[in-house]
Amino acid sequence: MVRLMSKKITILILSLLFLPLAGFGCKGLSQTERQATQPVALEYWTVFDDVDAIRALIEKYRAERPYLTVNVRQLRADEFNQRFIEALAEDRGPDIVSIHNRALRQYESKLSPMPSSANDVTIRIVEGKLGSQTIVNTRSRGLISPLQLDREYVQAVKNDVIIGGKIYGLPLSLDTMAVYYNKDLLDRAGVAEPPKNWEEFQAAVKKMTRYDRKTGRILQSGAALGTGNNIPNADDILYILFKQSGLDFATRNGLSVLNAVPQGGTRGELSAAMQVVNFYTDFANSTRDTYTWNEDMDSALDKFVNGSVGFLFGYSYHYPVIKARAPQLNVEILPLFQLNEDQRVNSANYWVQAVSQKSQRKNEAWALIDYLTHSEDTKQYLDATGRPTALRAFINAQSEQPELAPFVSQTLVSDNWYKGKDYQTASRAISTMLREWLQTPPDPDKEIEWRQEILNRAAARVNQTL
């Protein structure tokens, strides 16, 4: 009897000792552990249309961090700036923000650079025969260094996010420009195979363009090209054409040099830069045989979706828009045409996840960004959204996916031409330049000087935004 009572007492004591550790909460945790697992709430502002994929990845992250809540809020791109500035002024701004790579320097003073590490607290519930036990683990999460970033991300990321030797954000993905085409329109025009270069592209455009015989109005465009007001990312296309021609559009620091006059040029002849602009605008010049587009037309994307444009230059984010608005459209995608395959060029267009300077939770914010953008689970986001990767490790796998291959194949040779603080103004300067270029020179005898002045004004307007 004594032995039996002694055994029961032992079991009871062990149960009482273990009970405080059961479940997650303050009971059974040390003061340090209780402090480390206090509730943390992060505000995350993004303009992505794939917030569900971001939220799903965050929930996976929270599985071992139940003390953390993240409110993901989606804003329109055109309202972000005003909302962000107002929120910061009222000390209620977000902790994490998605910033376009062309706007990173605009917001630099309002962002917090990445530290070398972040404290990361995880919680596991271990089930045992006598109940469950809460295990709290605190570790230092090493964050990516500039050298490591250079090795693991494509070059465009390094050129954008490292400012003054510090990293100001990381991308979830990275987009490049490719060529969408309406296969049915090519077939009807007798173009058996899609073009492989700019020369074949010009020939295909001529075959596909249809005019009203009486009015000369364009009924069907071979391509949406030649203007700036109704073509998305026209500045990117022009930048690519400059670089493919061996000309600088802007310096590494962002200074616009599209107006540079090469030494040794012959007076009275078009400069190389002028010839590039002519090549682009000839598609909107009614006196040229490649005339297929003009400034009076609707948006290039709208015209492509309604089936009246053969070729559209766009990014991967355009694909779901096209498929949603015109699921019946027979669309295929080509990598961007190149002048020299040994010197391939493309444009990098993407969003960076950054931390607000006013955030009171910078540590937790950077730890979350590191997980979202720089972990094995980043592939989960890429698979769910169908976006091209910015990480070199995932390029080969994505290259096997037909819809992604045209974009992913160009990420290693992509870059961003703009490094200033007001991309919208700079982009409008390029658009204005293209509109002026299409006008008739007031004095044919001074056309070269007139065109040089157009280039000079555009470069000056861009440089005013630096």
From TrEMBL:
State the family it belongs to.
Answer: Belongs to the bacterial solute-binding protein 1 family.
Keywords linked to the UniProt accession: Signal, Transport
Protein name per Swiss-Prot or TrEMBL:
Sugar ABC transporter substrate-binding protein
Query: The organism sits in which domain of life?
Result: Bacteria
Q: Which InterPro entries match?
A: Bact_solute-bd_prot1 (IPR050490), SBP (IPR006059)
